[in-house]
Amino acid sequence: MSAVVSESTQVATPAHELRDGAFGHATGLSCRECGHQVALGPHYACPECFGPLEIAYDFPAVTREEIEAGPANIWRYKALLPVPSDIESSPNMEPGFTRLLKADNLGRALGIDNLWVKDDSTNPTNSFKDRVVACALSAAREFGSKVFACPSTGNLANAVAAAGARAGIKTVVFIPSNLEKPKQINSAIYTDSLVAVNGNYDDVNKLASEIAGEEDGWAFVNVNVRPYYAEGSKTLGYEIAEQLGWRLPDQIVIPVASGSQLTKVHKAFQELIKLGLVEDKPYKVYGAQATGCSPVSVAYKAGVDAIRPVKPDTIAKSLAIGNPADGIYVLDVCRQTGGAVEDITDDEVRDAIVLLARTEGVFTETAGGTTVGVLKKLVETGQLDTSLETVVINTGHGLKTLDAVADVVGARATIEPNYAAFRDSGIV
Ligand SMILES: Cc1ncc(COP(=O)(O)O)c(C=O)c1O
Ligand SMILES: [Zn+2]
Predict the structure, then answer these.
(1) Which end of the chain is more exposed for a tag (fewer CB within 10 A), N or C?
(2) Ligand 1 within 6 A of 324 CB?
């Protein structure tokens, strides 16, 4: 296969001869808006209409048994991803195949009969971003990129920095300078090139696009290799279906920042149906945002198609994208499937973090607090059917956002080291 680079895509990575099978069964890039086809390359915007490009495939017949015989990570689904068949042989973080927990205690607390938590906090850098980065890293390798980079709300920077270190490729990660300290350290530990930008995520993203247009050989995972990166989120959908016994859930609640993950879980479910790996059935997709950055929820509730960008002000910093690239597609998916998009306050985010920890022993970050809190609100407002099988995704670990709950949990009593003092404390 040779790289045919379209003239009008805004890419600084030079034309690079692609090896056969570099992108598995991917056949090209297709515009989500007008369907225009572009050859596989480090392109992300349609040369005709500037719409986002997505990977198009010619999938082979894939069986459940073939997938089940694969490794306990996302590469068990490699036939459905834009990666080569020898992907496992290059050093990578091997993310995925995280736990799907039956959440009976949380279900009881919320009044939901059949609830599961997909716990993606146990990925190598403790968020779902290891999945998308693993696919982006493969693309960067195949394009011969020199630098692996990203603008990030935190978790992505952690995942890019670690994956780049393991792959032996230079990484440069850009974050808003007001990001939580633990998230900064979780990037800086893997790379000497963490760049803190005085601005919010949307400013950082704009800067990254500018650099991607100017510098040769940079693979910005969520900018110029975004079509490849985004496909990694499909593996969340594949895993949930496989772990349910090759079945789709009735309802699923997913956090929304750029909106990529939500649209890709839906894409994964559709692919599984088309490939005959699961039975075709209706399911509802719900999006979760924090009120302090809820442009998609606002548009959903107003019944409009356009997303009005906002300036984020929330403790859920990993979801703080004021101008979400895939926001309009989130609206489409949630409306088409009969789901909804909902938002909750920062106090509700904190309460939900504590609720999940105390019911299921799972410590989530603010993004997961947002998702569980929205699940609770969907029940309270009658938007979610409590008799149906429901999955909620926990996308990141609470140790990264300790400050969010530092004032709401702590020692119940401080006592002298003797039994009388313990009895006096009123603990029992
Ligand atoms: C922990 C966590 N959950 C969810 C998301 C949302 O991802 P997306 O941008 O695909 O909507 C992010 C994005 O940064 C995140 O860090
Ligand atoms: Zn187009």
Answers:
(1) C
(2) no
- What spatial distance separates the first Cα and last Cα of the chain, rounded to whole Å? 70
Question: What does the block give as tokens for 427?
Answer: 């603990």
**In what helix (H) or strand (E) does residue 96 lie, and over which residues does it extend?**
none
* Distance between Cα 41 and ligand 1 center (Å): 25
Who's near 305: CB < 8 A, 6+ residues apart?
A: 299, 328, 331
Closest CA relative to residue 58, chosen from 33, 32, 31, 30: 30
How is the beta sheet containing 194-197 ordered, strand by strand? 194-197, 170-176, 147-151, 218-220
* Nearest CA residue ID for atom 6, ligand 1: 257
- Closest ligand 1 atom to residue 321 Cα is 9
Using one digit for the tens of pLDDT, what is the confidence trace for 25-66?
Answer: 999 999 999 999 999 999 999 999 999 999 999 999 999 999
Q: Note the pLDDT tens digit of each residue in 131-187.
A: 999 999 999 999 999 999 999 999 999 999 999 999 999 999 999 999 989 999 999
209: left (phi > 0), else alpha (psi -120 to 50), else beta? Answer: alpha
Average pLDDT for the chain = 95
pTM over 0.85, yes/no: yes
Best residue for ligand 1 mutational test, from 314, 318, 370 (most atoms within 8 Å of Cβ)? 318
